Amino acid sequence: MTQPNIVLPGPVETALGLLETAGFEAWVVGGCTRDALLGDTPKDWDITTSALPEETLSVFSDYRTIETGLQHGTVAVLLDDMLLEITTYRVDGTYKDSRHPDAVTFTRTLGEDLARRDFTMNAIAYSPARGYEDLYGGAADIEAHLIRCVGDPETRFTEDALRILRALRFSSVLGFAIEEKTSSAIHALKERILHVAWERISAELLQLLCGKDVYRVLQDYRDVFAVLFPELKPCFDFEQKNPWHIYDVYTHTCHAVEHIEPEPELRLAMLLHDLGKPETFFTDDKGVGHFYGHAKHSARIADDIVHRLKLSTAMQDEVRTLVEFHDYPLEATDHILLRRLHKFGPDTLRHLILVQRADCLAQNPAKTGEDLDRLSTIEQKLNILLNKDPVYRTRDLAVDGGDLIALGMEPGPQMGAFLEDLLEAVMAGDLPNERESLLAYVREKGMKP
Q1: Distance in angstroms (rounded) separating the CA atoms of residues 273 and 251
Q2: What was the pLDDT predicted at 449?
Q3: How many Cα neighbours within 13 Å face the side chain of 422?
Q4: pLDDT tens digits for 98-135?
Q5: Is residue 28's pLDDT more than 90?
Q6: What percentage of residues in the chain have a pLDDT greater than 90?
Q7: In a 3-state reduction of DSSP, which class is residue 130?
Q8: H or E stretch covering 92
Q9: How far apart are CA 87 and CA 318, in angstroms?
Q10: Average pLDDT, the chain
């Protein structure tokens, strides 16, 4: 199979050329080669070489180098404002912690280096001077849209359990299938994921959730996700017995994830939004299923999960809010929208509209047409309202605490409550947001210390 030459950035070509001129082999390898063959622009360029770390340092003695990865054979070199990682061919030792090799051994043979890599599509090396080195059929697997482990899958996943999630992430993001033996090993070794730090799990999971093929991956590997989140298990095959729902809770959840914009906090919120349904389920006297209060139960469960994932405080708060209020009533009236803006702010309110739309799209299409139209109207009304610079926060009022103090009110909770009363009156259209009108309202109400 003839593959096109890869157009390399100038600094990368320079680095390869300097190493080759010094008598060493040098290749770009891994994700950059894979992305180039996929027709995508690589984000990072990794270089592998037969030069030992001290030899690499000598070749680039005229450039700024960073030696923080020397024990693993990596030297970072700054060329023309591009930071390149140059790593010596190596063979990994045993992996006692299912994540990191206990030791690495440097080698002069590219084939030994490629043999330690995770997937065939990531084990392709390219050099302008030497062409491609593809010992494991990675280019053919890329063309076939297939993810396959290099060598024995069980060995690869036992060495580094994060590779299990990486395989699922690549499958979701690229839309590639996972080769049968590789897939079987994922299912068999899924429990090993718990050896991986949650920060690394979180990084892979959020990318996975934003993939174009996320629905298939969530369904086909639900047993793997249940290892990370046992809270999902009660949702599996849980029939909702409700005319609004044609899917079980977990299938509905998977559809909801795929129907929302691929932003990490939105996709994660949809994965967690109905976790409280099984524990709140009951049927009425007609046999119809209901889940009253499930959103609050889901938020409580989601709170544990976002802490487990060690997300930023801001993302934790946003996901928790979206889950807790995913079925909160929204209406296309200025008064209600202003109150919702006051409660959530513009960004979260926009997210809630998206959440409710995704929730509808994952329900019975014969029932949700009116709700989808209503949400579109709400979104349009919100955009119009926000363009008018609306008043929805106490700081937007034409009076402040100093004005109330001047009228004899003591600072404290009473003042805050009265400012909220003023804001509600303005949002309801009962008062104009004008200083004199607001002060007259205060005097009329007779608020005193």
Answers
A1: 13
A2: 40
A3: 33
A4: 555 667 889 999 999 999 999 999 999 999 989 999 99
A5: yes
A6: 88
A7: coil
A8: strand 90-92
A9: 40
A10: 94
In 3D space, the residue among 281, 211, 210 whose CA is nearest the CA of residue 248 turns out to be: 281
Distance CA 268, CA 205 (A): 9
Question: Strand, coil or helix: what is 258?
Answer: helix
In tens, the pLDDT along 70-108 reads 888 999 999 999 999 999 999 876 656 555 566 788 999
Cα(304)–Cα(133) distance, integer angstroms: 46
Predicted confidence at residue 409, as pLDDT, reads: 86
The CA distance from 333 to 382, in Å, is: 9
Note the pLDDT tens digit of each residue in 131-168.
999 999 999 999 999 999 999 999 999 999 999 999 99
- Give Cα 390 to chain centroid, integer Å: 32
Calpha distance 12→104 (Å, rounded): 25
**Sign of the Cα pseudo-torsion (84, 90, 96, 98, in order):** positive
Phi, psi of 101, rounded to the nearest 5 degrees: -70, 140
The burial class, CB within 10 Å (0-12 / 13-18 / 19+), for 311 is: buried
Look up residue 178 and give its amino acid.
Answer: I
pLDDT for res 75: 95
Question: What is the token pair recorded at 414?
Answer: 């009473």
Cα gap 77→11, rounded to integer Å: 10
Q: 406: which 2 tokens?
A: 């001047």
Nearest to 379 by CA among 289, 261, 263: 261
Tell me which H or E stretch contains 64: strand 64-69
**pTM, whole model, 2 decimals?**
0.92
In eight-state DSSP terms, residue 76 is E
Q: How far is CA 137 from CA 27, 31, 147, 167, in A?
A: 17, 15, 11, 17
DSSP H helices, 105-149, are: 110-115, 138-143
Distance CA 299, CA 293 (A): 10
Contact present, 165 and 202 (Cβ < 8 Å): no
> How buried is 84 (Cβ within 10 angstroms: 0-12 exposed, 13-18 middle, 19+ buried)?
buried
> Which two tokens mark 411?
């600072």
Per DSSP (E only), the strands in 137-255 are 146-147, 177-178
In the structure, what pLDDT confidence band is assigned to residue 3 with cuts at 50, 70 and 90?
Answer: confident
